[in-house]
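I am still learning, so would you mind making up any protein sequence you like and the tokens describing how it folds?
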Amino acid sequence: GSQSTAPASSSPTGAERPASGNAVPTAAAEPDAAHAALEREFNAIKARLFAASEAEQETVARAEIPKLESLLTRYQSDTDKFWVYEKLVLPYAIVGDEVKTCSALRTANRMAASTQQVEAVMRLKSAFSNCL
């Protein structure tokens, strides 16, 4: 055939790449930056929850729950939302909110897709069998 294929260096959008090798900023760069910021925020919340002493746990949980809940509205992917629900179970339990504890666990259970997620839910189910 006389049909030639496009060179491997050309992108399907026709956007040119600068000589530096960095991609031209696209609409995807903004969500990536926003997602990275959400990940940093989520990691900081998890670190504060983990670092709390037994005496501080309830105070820290009360402070971090609204921040975790706000991530649910800002994360786009179900994978990201799963990990927030999974991480909400214990703080809800610490503050004594059994309804929200069980709701977060059931939602995480429904959303679990990967082996890692299923295993995380199984650990929570064994600790919070009252929710089942």
In short: Confidence is low (pLDDT under 50) at residues 3-23. The two ends are 64 Å apart (CA to CA). The first helix runs from residue 29 to 51. The chain has five helices and no strands.
